[in-house]
């Protein structure tokens, strides 16, 4: 399954309702699982981003549905990176001429 690194910043609405964050994070994880994905890790961070999640999903379209759903809720803004494992990277390198 593809791996995604999701960088998140709280919106004004998200920080105003921060005490409810654990419920939202758990709900997002359950939604991801229902779509065939998995949350590998979730971190609250200090610095440019407020949260970082590492997820797996069945594909880019499913990932986009999940991310758009997060955005629609209005608590976070996301920046998403599609990640490749070391083995996947080596496989790509072997395709080079």
What does this entry look like structurally?
The chain is of the alpha+beta class and 97 residues long. The protein has one domain (3-94): Alpha-Beta Plaits. Helix content is 43%, strand content 30%. It is built from four helices and four strands. The chain has helices at residues 12-16, 21-34, 60-73, 86-94, and strands at residues 3-10, 38-44, 51-56, 76-83. A four-stranded antiparallel β-sheet has the order 2-3-1-4. β2 (38-44) and β3 (51-56) form a beta hairpin. The longest helix is centred in the first third of the chain and has 14 residues, at 21-34. It is elongated, with a radius of gyration of 15 Å.
Structural class of the helix and strand makeup?
alpha+beta
The count of β-strands is 4
Helix content: 40-55%
**Major β-sheet strand ordering:** 2-3-1-4
CATH level-1 class: Alpha Beta
The CATH level-2 architecture is identified as: 2-Layer Sandwich
| Percent range for β-strand residues | 25-35%
Order of helices and strands: EHHEEHEH
Radius of gyration: 15 Å
The number of domains is 1
Terminal residue distance: 26 Å
* Envelope shape: elongated
- The tally of helices reads 4
- CATH level-4 homologous superfamily: Ribosomal protein S6/Translation elongation factor EF1B
Biggest sheet layout: 4 strands, antiparallel
The third-level CATH topology is Alpha-Beta Plaits
Query: Which stretches are low in confidence, meaning pLDDT under 50 for 5 or more residues running?
Result: none
Mean pLDDT: 96
